[in-house]
Structures are given as structure tokens and as C-alpha cells.
Amino acid sequence: MDDLVEFLVARIMDDNHAYAYVADTLGGDALLDSHLPMLDLTEQLAREYAAMDPSDPRSEGVAYALRVLAQSYAEHRAYREEWRP
Questions:
Q1: Whole-model pTM?
Q2: How many domains does the chain divide into?
Q3: Cβ-based neighbour number of residue 42 at 10 Å
Q4: pLDDT tens digit string along 8-31?
Q5: What is the DSSP letter of 47?
Q6: What is the pLDDT of residue 68?
Q7: Between helices 29-51 and 2-26, what is the axis angle to 10°?
Q8: Nearest residue to 80 via CA among 9, 2, 6, 4
Q9: For residue 21, what are the domain limits?
């Protein structure tokens, strides 16, 4: 699961850089306004899971949520099929 968290955070960082570039060059504020908060919340969830004790009763549900969210990057070369929920 640590690999999935690292993968997801890396993809979010890539997206943040791409959206910043779009905003700077094309003025894509509407795109940023709608997507950046979701990226931030997904990153927060991934980092909280990474810090969570495995015995925490929420860990299984959070792990499932991260697997679902990671599916949006299923076409990325580093995505692993075993991460599918």
C-alpha cells in the first residue's frame, strides 16, 4: 500500500505542476478552481493514511478510497493492476 500512496502523491504533484503551467500560460482559472481542491484533498487523504496506524479501524476504508482514486491514473505506466479495488 505504501507504493500506491507514493504513486498517488507523485501523480498529484505532476497534476499540480501541469495545472499551474496551464493557468500561467492559458489562464485556466476555472480548471484550477475545480480540480486543485480535489487534488489537495486526495493528497491529504494519502498522507493521513501513510501516517495511520494499521490497527486504526478506518485504515481499510481509507485504503479502499485511495485505490478508487488511483484509478484515475490507471493509464500511467507506473500504475499496477493489483491496486484496483
A1: 0.79
A2: 1
A3: 20
A4: 999 998 888 777 777 667 665 655
A5: H
A6: 96
A7: 160
A8: 4
A9: 2-83
